[in-house]
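Q: What would this chain look like folded?
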Amino acid sequence: MDNRAEFYEKLKKKLDESNIFPSEYLFKFIVSSHEEKIKQVEDLFNFKGAIITKTSSKTGKFTSVSIHVVMDNADDIISIYVEAEKIEGIISL
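A: My prediction, written as structure tokens:
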């Protein structure tokens, strides 16, 4: 099993232990402040009723994107993180 698979397996266990689903979950990402990158993050949550807030860094080079959204289960949360990994330069918090 590779490191990513182990990481997500542990995350799933922690999420299942600490949440009663469906549950509101907070995703936080940092991306470069290019509109294209921000839109890619926002697109992960289309049609999910998410509340998205964006905050630029002091220098304006990076944007923090926080997303509050109700998730049905741990697997759905993990699938968002897996999709987010495909965005170049993204940092998941």
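The chain has one domain: 3-92.
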